[in-house]
Amino acid sequence: xxxxxxxxxxxxxxxxxxxxxxxxxxxxxxxxxxxxxxxxxxxxxxxxxxxxxxxxxxxxxxxxxxxxxxxxxxxxxxxxxxxxxxxxxxxxxxxxxxxxxxxxxxxxxxxxxxxxxxxxxxxxxxxxxxxxxxxxxxxxxxxxxxxxxxxxxxxxxxxxxxxxxxxxxxxxxxxxxxxxxxxxxxxxxxxxxxxxxxxxxxxxxxxxxxxxxxxxxxxxxxxxxxxxxxxxxxxxxxxxxxxxxxxxxxxxxxxxxxxxxxxxxxxxxxxxxxxxxxxxxxxxxx
Length: 286
Prior knowledge:
Blueprint: E1 6-12, H1 18-29, E2 34-36, E3 45-52, E4 66-74, E5 76-78, E6 87-90, H2 98-104, E7 110-114, E8 123-124, E9 127-128, H3 129-134, E10 147-160, E11 163-170, H4 176-186, E12 191-201, E13 204-205, H5 212-217, H6 224-228, E14 232-235, H7 238-245, E15 250-251, E16 260-263, E17 269-276, E18 279-285
């Protein structure tokens, strides 16, 4: 039986880990070769990009920006920076206004520096932070390496009492929990992430995401142009397909700036290649 090949836009429900979702997809599509384009915390929900079969090799070539609807609770801090953790601080947030919150947002747009939370998978001295946290170890801030991330868009949707809803469009690797905590600090308040919904992952949008129940009935495979459309396309003939199959270079039709899709005359994705002089060198062959 031919192994499935393609990308699925999966709607992860709260309560499931990203690993659980991958396991469920493995059972539904009948192959163990399944991977995803970015984890979601178990308590979070929303879009997960799931690749199946040889398409798992393409995960590094997908657009990796993310979009979220974040619910932030001001006046409350936890040891995990989200609603799942133990409360570590409380404060009166009744004086917080939408105008004050909106005025604080511009400082977090563009390239910013973040410190990952203790519940993240970042390695420190050979251990993941969440492993240390589970063991009851809390590192001082200066022991946790910072990272540069980009917030493309950050907007206030509404503020109801101490709880705000924010829309965030950001680069891969952005910690929304850290964003919530840092935003609270700017406002002089403890804060944590109350709930998180991922509304987009690259070209996968929430409106088109399928639940696992829907996938069980009829998986909706994303068209190639929908998930690799940001890459240039070159259609090749049968001779060139044969050359690519042996790992040989073929002529480039133009000067490409990034990886290029090579598609056969039957519409099948044959390979990804990169420019080498005036030729294309295959880097992934299907």
